[in-house]
Amino acid sequence: MLEIISRFFDKSQAQRDAGDPVIVSAQYHSLSPKMISRDARRVVDVLQDAGYEAYIVGGAVRDLLLGLKAKDFDVATNAKPAEVKSLFRRSRIIGRRFQIVHVQFSREIIEVTTFRSNETKSNDKRKNHRQQTDSGMLTRDNVFGSLNDDASRRDLSINAMYYDPGDNSIHDFAEGLDDIEKRVIRIMGDPATRFREDPVRMLRVVRFAAKLGFNIENRTGKPMHKLATDLEHVSPPRLFDETLKLFMSGQGLASFWLLNEYGLFERIVPQIGNMMKDRNSLTSKLVEQAFTNTDLRIRAEKRVTPAFIYAALLWPAVQKLAAHYRDRGNSPSYALSKASGEVIARQISITAIPRRFTMPMREIWDLQLLLPRRGGHRAKRLIEHPRFRAAYDFVLLREQAGEELSGLGDWWTAYQDASDEQREHMARSVGDPGKNRKRRNRRKPKPAAE
Ligand code: ATP
Ligand code: MG
To answer: Which residues of the chain have pLDDT under 50?
Structure first.
């Protein structure tokens, strides 16, 4: 285990005013400039040579201190976006709510953020740059500030460390190094205020706790349950992105448990919220199994898609609603189609799942109805379906979660491994639950489309 901060470093000796950082110099910490990507170093060098302050900040500092690989490198500077842009030929300003500069290199993009301030001076010209809703949520955040200002508006203590590769020092504003050693997730400032300003911070608390295996500090976790409802103020596209980071991080199961513990999960997927109260229900098992399988796939470097995860999360709601429509006399396929459409419509008003994922979700669900009907020539056709593999994995998932499907998964596993001759034999000897109904349906007029 790395010694993150030398025990010989005595913070009480460090001269500083309130709000100033502890500056931890080279001999006392485990980072070195070599750990920083060449491109990120170059951005810092160019900015510093031009007379600006510039640091590596956020996730990279945190992860490198923990001995993990940095996902990407973010740079923070006192240069304004336009000034940054003028220093790098291949760069552009992006964002409105939060302007940043992307500097493009052949291998990576370095994100450069200008120091922001947390101040709200309602009577000066900054008013237009920082906007807040009645619930206290920030909708625009372009007030520039000093390094100290910038640090105080970051979310977690472990995300508020600034590394200067020039002199190899860490500027630690909120005792982030201590929290890294203690393995604690702590929000800076008053937790409730910070969560109201941006409810996504609650999801970030959970995400980093799950990803790093850290504990959530009591004070930080305390208001989360009550403020979970504030997630409804977050825009659906942003909330969708955040759910992907939670579900597809390789720590989906741990994230799910924490989301559940703090009442956040039922705000993200309310349609199955009620069905999850019982930890032993089929729904709870399906959801846990879906995350378990996703985590395993990520560890094995296999492909994962949001379509499969969302298909699993919403399946219990789809099944319930489809049963309701069947009870009212609709055909199974019509009931399923109507239920799928409605469940998706409700979900995208919370997390904006793009169409390129909702289409395959519907296909996976449709195939759940078709895969049991595998007699005659059907099996041969089904296996050619572009979504067969996902739908088959979905059958296995349902069975793993405890749903009784009369050996459907095993049958399809065997069918895929079988020779042509064996396949024909299998298709001939299978009972076909859909056969008679289909004939009957043919005579009836088709129900109207949705
Ligand atoms: P990773 O990129 O590994 O997911 P990260 O900490 O770098 O983790 P980013 O989303 O890239 O996360 O954000 C970079 C930094 O910006 C964070 O470390 C944090 O200091 C700050 N930050 C990001 N989102 C917020 C937020 N919602 N509120 C306050 N500060 C934030
Ligand atoms: Mg990052």
So the answer is: 1-2, 13, 15, 121-127, 435-446, 449-450
Q: Which tokens is 36 given?
A: 């920083």
Question: Cα separation of 242 and 208, whole Å?
Answer: 12
Give the position, in ligand 1's atom list, of the atom nearest the Cα of 245. Answer: 4
pLDDT digits (tens, 9 = 90+) for 131-155: 667 776 765 566 889 999 999 889 9
Instruction: Give, using CA atoms, the residue closest to atom 14 of ligand 1.
Output: 58
Q: Which residue, judged by its Cα, is nearest atom 18 of ligand 1?
A: 58
CB atoms within 10 A of CB 61: 30
Amino acid, res. 174: A
Atom 8 in ligand 1: which residue has the minimum CA distance? 59
Domain positions in the chain are 2-182, 271-432
Ligand 2 centroid to Cα of residue 219, in Å, is 25
With the most atoms of ligand 1 within 8 angstroms of its CB, the residue from 154, 205, 207 to mutate is 154
Sequential DSSP letters for 88-103: -SSEEEE-SSS-EEEE
Q: How far apart are CA 255 and CA 245, in angstroms?
A: 10
**Both tokens assigned to 33:** 């400039």
Question: pTM of this prediction?
Answer: 0.88
What CATH number does the domain located at 271-432 have? 1.10.3090.10
Q: Give the whole-angstrom CA distance, residue 433 versus residue 126.
A: 68
Q: Is 150 a catalytic residue?
A: no
198 is catalytic: no
Give strand pairing partners of 132: 138
Do the beta carbons of residue 441 and residue 331 sit within 8 Å?
A: yes
**CA distance from start to end of the chain:** 59
Reported in sequence order, the residue ranges of 193-280 that DSSP labels E, i.e. its strands, are 215-216
| CATH fold for domain 2-182 | Beta Polymerase; domain 2 (3.30.460)
Three-state secondary structure call for residue 426: helix
